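Bumping my old thread because nobody answered last time. Still need a sequence for this structure:
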């Protein structure tokens, strides 16, 4: 049995974004228990030159959203980057999950050999769908999801490897 482009993308995004929702719940509980404002988490960084926590979630969502849209040959919804609290970040993550699940598998499958154009500052990048998914979308998505996880751990949120991986379904 061959793995389809849909099964190599959408379920992975949905699973990890769902895990991220759980982490946000734990982050809020941690802030409440320790009596600090969650805005501290939203602004946290591991290094001075990196984007803060909020941007990590926005970019992870965008990676999933644009990845599925480009593979499916459809227009991605526009999400304004205006989240200022954990509730708004949860909403963005959920909207991303809802969107990636809304693109039919039939539109994504078969995109492995399709040219995908990715707008870049230095000009468009054109690659085949499989290369785009394996070498750009998934690594970018996991980079930002993992950075989000690391920021929460760095700030004392009680997360472990099982929280990162989530339940096997």
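Sorry it took so long. Here it is:
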């Amino acid at each position: 049995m061959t793995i389809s482009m849909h099964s190599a993308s959408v379920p992975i995004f949905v699973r990890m974004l769902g895990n991220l929702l759980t982490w946000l719940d734990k982050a809020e509980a941690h802030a409440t228990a320790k009596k600090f404002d969650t805005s501290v988490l939203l602004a946290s960084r591991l290094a001075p030159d990196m984007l803060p926590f909020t941007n990590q979630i926005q970019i992870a969502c965008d990676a999933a959203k644009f990845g599925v849209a480009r593979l499916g040959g459809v227009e991605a919804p526009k999400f304004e980057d205006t989240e200022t609290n954990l509730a708004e970040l949860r909403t963005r993550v959920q909207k991303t999950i809802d969107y990636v699940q809304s693109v039919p598998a039939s539109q994504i499958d078969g995109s492995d050999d399709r040219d995908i154009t990715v707008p870049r500052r230095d000009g468009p990048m054109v690659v085949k769908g499989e290369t785009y998914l394996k070498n750009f979308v998934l690594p970018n998505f996991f980079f930002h999801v993992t950075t989000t996880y690391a920021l929460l751990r760095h700030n004392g949120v009680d997360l472990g490897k099982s929280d990162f991986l989530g339940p096997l379904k």
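Residues 129-154 form the longest helix (26 residues). Let me know if any region looks off to you.
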